[in-house]
Structures are given as structure tokens and as C-alpha cells.
What does this fold into?
Amino acid sequence: MLWQIPNIAYGFALNLFDAAVILYFIAAILGILFRNSKHVLYIGSALMFVASLIVFVDTVSLDIDIIRASSFTHLEGVLPLLNYPVLVDPLSLVILLVISLVAMATAIYTPKYLEYYEELGRKGFFIALMATFVASMILIVLSNDLLWFLFMWEVMTFTSYLLIVWEYTEKYVVKAGWKYFVSMHFLSTIPLILGVIITIVLCGTTSMTMIKSRLWFLDPNVLAILYVLYLLGFASKAGVVPFHFWLPDAHPAAPSNVSALLSGVMIKVAVYGVLRFCCYILPLNAMIGYSIATLGALSLTIGTLYALKQTDAKRLLAYHSVGQMGYIWLGLGTGIVLLANNNPLGIVGIIAGLYHLVNHAVFKGLLFLSAGSILYKTRIRNLNLLGGLSRIMPYTSILTLIAALSIAGVPPFNGFLSKWLIYESTFSSTKGLLVFYGVLALFISAATLASFIKFYTTAFTGELNIDNIEKGDVPLSMLAGMTLLAVFCILWGVLPITIVPLLQKAPLMLAGIASAGSVIVVTPLWISITTSSFSPVLLLLSLGLVSLPALLSMKPKKQIVPTWDTGIGLTMDKKYYRLIAAHYYRNYEEAIHGLYRFGSLTCSSLYKVLLLVTNTLMVINQRIGYAVSRVSRELVNKISSLTGRAKEVYLDELIFSPIVSVLRELSKFLGWTVLRTDLNTYLVYSALYVIVLSIIAILFITRMMLP
Amino acid sequence: MIEEIYLKIGCLVISLIIGLFTPLLLDGIGRKIKARIQYRNGPPVLQTFYDMFKLLKTPSLVPGGVGFIIAPIIAFSAALISMSMLPIGMVSPISFSYDIFVYLYVLAMVSIAMMLAGFSVQNAYANIGANREMMMILSIEPILGIVLGTIALVTGNLSIEKIVLSAGFLDVKHLILYIFSLIMLTYAIYVECGFIPFDLAEAETEILEGPLVEYSGRLLGLFKWALLIKRFSLIWLFTSLLTAPLLIHYGVSITTMLLSFVVQLAVATIIYCCMVTYEALTPRYKIDWVIKSNLKIFLLSIAYLMIVLVIT
It folds into this structure.
């Protein structure tokens, strides 16, 4: 009966969520009504900021409530005004925190940044889309109803598509947007719809909490189908290898503030989906843990090694989203495996994954905003052409350095702590595969560092080599948005106590273990797990204690001299007296070129196999069609020879015409995509689609055949 | 309890003192050894102290921004505080962590500062040096990862303090694996220390000390000191994994503690001298060769990891 006491507080919390969502809607409606107005852009951004702030504060205060009432596990109810079924537990709180934080930063950043897209106009409409996008993500995370979840998922996909193709005058943007739209529907929405339909049919209810209690009695075969469908649906949305191909095209194509939301938040909602569906609604399973960890290890290796080669600022960041997503999945997968084996160390794995999720949202959001600031100032994305920007944009330079060091995992920034927890959980898991993945993660951390040293130094250091650029940093509001994220990069790295208690509650939802307190202990100074401990504050303190005397005794005179020019003067323009982005790490890339070749070979052979499957399926369909029509003709002949007269019956049409008409509509739709992307994409998608459908059909038929 | 804290604080002081000055002394000894191998008389043993003293007296010229000035200071402090994580004999000094990954990352800050400094100036030599440093890290990091992974699997610990404790009580099967891991660690440390042929980042004879080419005076002195401390810190890590487990059987008392410290210092000196001797007898190689050989060793070490996984 502990419910009764805090009930008022929780009702109030729901009211706040309600208010926030309504504010987003007001922003959206205003934006749609006055689509060309510049003032609405400012009003809408302000509304979005306030709404996100409300969600942020609500999330943090709810977390405190949860800590206080330890018996409280989750909060069910409806948003009072919208009548929207709600499930809030620590897992959703983590994602809500991320969404609201990055949304706040982008809301501050957006109005000034949109000047970059001045000629496209429709600024009000942009903020309407963005508000809807954020609101849909918040509602996904809050939802306790499978159908609402699906609906909001679709709203999220559609608004994000519209935002990605904002710069519709560029051909590559339209192409990338369409690739995203089609991929998402084939690989994410369709599997999810199938999964949800199966779940609802089997359980007879759409409420997640009810389903959770009923699914335990299901047959393992059906559970396996559900696992595969959900995993596919969420993995492709999260951009995990091998479903990542849309991400390096779509994220750079979007305006930078949208990229920050896409990379920072949207792919995290997919992680929420995996945890919610595969580990909360469906029971925990070691196999699913291994699959998640394997996908994670694959994508962290492949994503980051491909990122090493990129010289386009935003494309580089997008490949790193794939790579860092791999870290998150590796941590979560390790946690699930260990929890399924009743090893309490699994809690560390889950916390590590969620910690990296939160951190990645912050620093990747900041990095995309930095890339946006560079674009805003110079209109250049190619790192080969940039250089020396710290001389005109000192603040942006410092903020980018913070983000770059965070993502590279340099202590005492936040990326280090989460990576450290991931190493701890994998290396001490005593499971060979996971230890190997841990080694990969350690290695890839160096590759991330390499990539971000390249990103930072090519753009910001050296001497300014861009002509006709006006002095002065980007506008103050853009800097403010970036600073907000940078503050959390440092805060969550130095004081883990500000975030870990929130994360600590989340694995308890999954495992039903009494307390995480014994496995991971956080005090203001220390973060300790069973295997070892670390104090970021003391690290910072000792760094400072040693460096301060050094700095004071150095008395570095500000005597600026030109760089050394070989003594006899340079024979070239000084502009070229440095490495450009394409030259970085070339020897290393040549040494591992076998890996890149293997990647492209795999892609092409996979494509060939899919093509073969499509062709075979088409031939089989044709044969079946012929056979059925022959049988029906024979049947008609037989009957007419017996009775003298018979109505002509075409069995094939009877059975197949509905299917054929569905397929025809589908191919019409796909044919439309051919015009927008290319033939290969079309063929591969149709093949994948047919394969998925046939697997499900086969599984269902075998299931019905069995007693 | 309070005595233990005093002991730990005492160890911290000792570790900072040996961290600051032993590297300079060892460098002097190393120069003497190299000179003898090349039939030269060589500088006095304290020459590195004189060099450092002179450099630290000289003001610096600054061709870059604030980062250019901060980089050597960060490198120096990171190298020095990494010493506090390693045991002195048998006792670990008071520190922010004993975790082996934290140690690795704190030490990596030296390289990061060096690379940022090298890339921060408009100078192709500095850039090439920083670029090579990053590639060296990229090629050695997976090997180091596997070594740590195997040590973690064999001893069941990830904290240096506990690894040292449990390594003293391994059975024969695990002990053999532990020794194999230490042999691989020697290779990784030799590479990370930047001895020839892995000195490609600084490469005095080829690219004029790479990232340090623009540095002069105090800042140069500090950077060089930081690199020497980093070398010593890595060798100290190796010796603490080697010597403390040997002496831990004799119980913990003042004499064993002192003895283990002396033994560790002696072993560190011997290892340093061996590495310098090997360095003096080795030619320089191109970066391509180094990366390729490191990749081969990585593949070998994956095989070793498999063996460890099967056995444990």
C-alpha cells in the first residue's frame, strides 16, 4: 500500500509530462499555421525548450522519488489530458533524460542555425516538424500500449524523414532521405508490425505490463520468432551493422541540428525498444544477449574502422554513431548474458551500456552541433579544405575539443567512465567470446581517438587557410546550446554520482535482482565495482596538483614566433606545409586494406546471393502458377466431360489474386523507389522482404502442423 | 589502520621521487651503455640531469596557441601520476585507482598531449611525427588489450594491486600462462616506450624529433622529461607484475617490503639496460614494416588468447 502515499506526487509527474507534450503540440500547430514566419521559429524554439526543460526536471525529480521509495518499481497510468496509456520506469527515465537534454540544446541552437538554410524558407514548418519529432520520441518511451507505440514509431520515422530531406534542392539529400525512408519501413516498421500483431494475437491485450505477465507461458518457438522480429526491427533503427548502410547517408544529409537529434537521440530510442521488448516484455535470454553483444562488437569494429577513412566531417561523425552504438550494444549484451546466467556482474554491463548511451547522446550531439557551426561559418564540410579555425572560432574550438576527448575516452571526461565499465564487465565475464569483444572494444577506442584527433586538428589547428571569412565566433545562442551539452560531458565524467544512481535502477527492472548496490557503489568521490574502483575527482585533483606548479614555474612568455621553415625558407606555399585529412594514418589504412576489401567483397557477394534468391523465388512462383492453372483447366475439362457443362473456374486466380494484387501494389511502390534510389536497392529490399515473409510463413505453418 | 595510511602516503612520496629522478639517471646510464657499444667514451652518467637543468632554465619560443603550452604540462603530470598507481615493492601508494585500464588511459594521455601538440602547429615535420605516433598506438593497442585480457583471465582480477597479490599464488598451469603473458607484455612495453626501431614518432635522425620540432627551452625539457617518466612507468608496471609475486610468499613485514622495493628497483634497472642494449644493436625501420609486424603479432596473440580461453 505504499502506492497511496506518493500517488499525488506521481500524478503531478504525469501532469507535467502531459503539459510538456501539449507544449510541443502547440509549437507544432503554430509552426504549421504560420509556416513561413520567422517569429514563430523563435516562439516554437522557446516552447520546445520549455517543454524539454519540464521533461528534464520531471525526470530528475521522479528519479529522486524512486530512490526514496525503494519498493516502487514502475508507474502506470494515463496522461490526464491526452488519455495516453503510460508506463514510466527507470529504464524510460534514462531515455527521457537523454531526449530532453539534447532537445533543449538543439532548441537553443536551432533559430540562428536556420539562417544557413535561409533560401529554403518555411522556418515555422521546420520547428513544427522538430517539435513533433521530439514529442513522438517522448511518447514512444512513455507508451504502455503496443499500438500507440507503433503509431508513434511511425510518426517518428516520418517526421525524421521530412527533416532529413529538408535541403530538398540537393540531389544527394533526396536520395539519402529516400534510402532512409524505404530501409526503415522494410527493416524496422514491417518486422515490428508483425511482431506486435503476433504478440497481441497470442496475449489478447495491447498493454505491455499485461503482456509481460502472460508471455511466460508461451512456446519457445514462438518466442524465438518474436525475439528475431523485434531484434531486427530495433537493430535496423539503431543503425547496427549489418543494418547500418542507411545511417552514413541519412545523418550527414540532414541539417546539423537534426543530425544531432538523430544520432544523439533517435537511435537511442531503438535501444530502448530492444531493452523494453527483448528483455522486459519477453523474458531474459542468454542467446539474445550473445546476439546483441555480437552485433555490438561487429558494429563497433566495422563502423569505427570505416570512420577512420572518412574525410567528410559529418560522414565521419555518422560512421562513429555506428561505432559508438556498437559499444552500447556490447555493454547491454554482456549485461544480458551475465544476468541470464544469474551473475550479478551483469548489472555492471547494463549500467555500462546505458551510461555509454547517455554519454554518447551528449557528446555526439555536441559534435554534430560543432560540425553545424563549422558549416554555418565556412560552408565547408570537407576536412581536407579546412584548417586553423580556432583562430576565428576559439569557443567552438574548445567545445569541440571537449566532445572529441569525451568520445575518445580520455579521462576525466564522460566517455572514459562508460568505456571503462564496459571493459570491466567484458574482461571479467570469464566468457571467452565476451573477453574477445572486450579486446576489440579496447582496440577500437584507439581508433576512435585517432579519428577524432583527425577531426579536431584538421578543422581547428594550424594556420587559417580559408580566404574571405569574417572574424568572430558563431552567434551566442548557438554557443549556448553547445555549452549546455559540454557541461554534461564534464559533469558526468567527473562526478558519476550525478548520473549512475538513475542508471542503477534500470537493470533491476530487467533482472528482478533485489539491489544493484552491492555490485556497483557510487560515492561523490569513488565509483567502485566488485573488481576495482576509480575516483575521477581525485584523478583530476592530482593532475591539477602536479600541473599547477609546473604551469607556474614555466612562466610561458607569450612570444609568438613563426613556425620553423627548414632554415632556408619553404619552397611551397605555407598553406600546404601540413598534413591534410586524406593523408592521416595512410600507412595504417594500407596495412589493414584487406579488411576493407573483405567488407566490400562481402557486400557484393551478399547482394548476389539475394539476387539469386529473388530470381529463384520468381521462377518458383511462376511454376506454381502454371501448375495450378493446369490443374484447374484439367479439373474444368474433367467436370465438363462428366456433366456436359461446367462453369469455368480458375483456382489460381481464386487463391492468388488477392496476393497478386497486394504484390502489384507493393512493386508499384518499390518501382517508385527505383526512380529515387537505384535498381540494386530495390532488388535487395524486395528479396529481403520475401525472405522475411517466407521465414515467418514457414515457421507458422510448422507451428500449426505440430500438435 | 592509520599506520597503513601512513605507509601508503610514504609510498606515494617514494613513488613520486623515483618517478621524477630515476628516469633521468637511467637515461644517463643508457647513454653510457650505448657509447660503450659504439666504442665511445660517452657523457657522464648525470648528463641527462645537466641537460634537463639547462633546458628548464631557458625560456621557450611559442609558435602555437594555448594548447601548445598546456600539452607538455599535461603530458608531464599524466606521466607522473601514473606512477602513483603502481605498487612500490609490495605496497600500493594511496591513489585514485589501481585499475589496469585506468592506468593505460592515464598513460595514454602523454601520447595524446604529444599528438595534439604535434598537430597543432603548421609544420609538416611535427604533423608527420604525430601521425606516426597515432599509427604506432593503433598497431600496439590490440596486442596490449590481449595481454591485459589474458592476465585478467589467468589471475581473475583487473586491479594491479590484486593481480600482484593473486599472481603469487597461481598453480603451475596458470603460472605458465602468466609468464607467457608477461613475455608478450615485454614486447608491448618495448614498443610503447619508443625504443629503436619503434622511435618513429620522434625519430631525431629522420624527422627532427617530430612533434617536438617546434618546442624549445622549458617546454621542450618538460616534454622530454614526461617521455622518460612514461618509459620508466611502463617498465615499473612490468617489474611490479614480476617481482612482487615472487616475494609475497615470505609474508608482509618491514624487511620484505624494503627487500621487494630494492629488488624491484634493481630489476627495473636491469630491464632498462637490456632494452637500451637491444636498442643500440638494432637498425631503424620504416613505419610500414612496424605496422605490418605488429599486425602479425596481433594475429599470433589472438591465437594465444584462444589457448588461454581453452585452458582456463
Notes: Chain B touches chain A through 77 residues (CB under 8 Å).
